[in-house]
Amino acid sequence: MDFKDLVAHRRSHRRFSDEEIAPEALQLILRSALMSPTSKSSRKWHFVVVDDKVALEKMADAKEAGAAFLKGAPLAIVVCAPPDEDECWIEDASIAAVTIQYQAADLGLGSCWAQMHGRGLSDGTTADEVIHGILGLDDAYKVLCVIAIGHYTDERKPQNEDALKWENVTIYSGHD
Questions:
Q1: Whole-angstrom Cα distance, residue 35 to residue 87?
Q2: Spatial CA neighbour of 45 closest among 107, 120, 137, 127
Q3: Which residues partner with 112 through β-bridges?
Q4: What are phi and psi of 18, to 5 degrees?
Q5: By three-state DSSP, how is residue 147 classified?
């Protein structure tokens, strides 16, 4: 599949089979993440692969809503970075997260992004604090998102070309 088709077919998948992810596939996904571009080639992001069911279930409850699908994923990758060392940590980690998703799709795997930065529980506990508590992450890192990855069981149609919002594109070619 060429990149044009990959982009059209990559969709968020929230239902996964119990089939494990092949070590070679995980290696390729992580390789792609580690090759993703960063501001000033800082490469300050950090990735935590979680395949422990108990940890995945706890992370699914790190915020009020929108992460329940983590409970059914065979693994997830926590994408984080140190804000004190990288002023572009959100951008850099976001690029890596999307790279993870495209590589997973290229391998025939499904993925879904669970936003954690800026999210939390009604008692004021942040999702970042919850995930740090579960995984024992270094305090220098802030969690941007958790990407669930697995063999998807839900079918999704490709992006609808007719629904693209071309009106959101402006082409500026300068004026004399």
A1: 19
A2: 137
A3: 148
A4: -80, -5
A5: strand
